[in-house]
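Let us work through a complete example step by step.
Step 1: write down the sequence.
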Amino acid sequence: MDPKISSKDAIGHRIFLQTSDPRHLKGSRGSPPTAKSKDFKGMVLDELNTVNNLQLKSDELSRRLVTDPDSVDVHDVTIALAEANMSLNITKAVVDRVIRAYRDIITAR
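Step 2: predict the structure and record it as tokens.
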């Protein structure tokens, strides 16, 4: 399915897009909050759990590649390692920015 933007989707300076992939984030700007909306702490913890799960998945696939190479595809291992590495790097960057912002707020008094 190749979604197209039509002229009726553009209203003023806004364009409304339909979600075509179920992995897209629900409840983003412009859409009403759902009953399952979480607070900031819950969202952060969920994302940290996601990063942890990606790390565990890549670790498990790496072990299976060493112990039983026929049970896993090397491409799956490579993709899992890349996803885990990227998610960890993004998490580190976000944490560093949060710490820097906190320090800036504390020293600005």
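Step 3: interpret the result. The radius of gyration is 20 Å.
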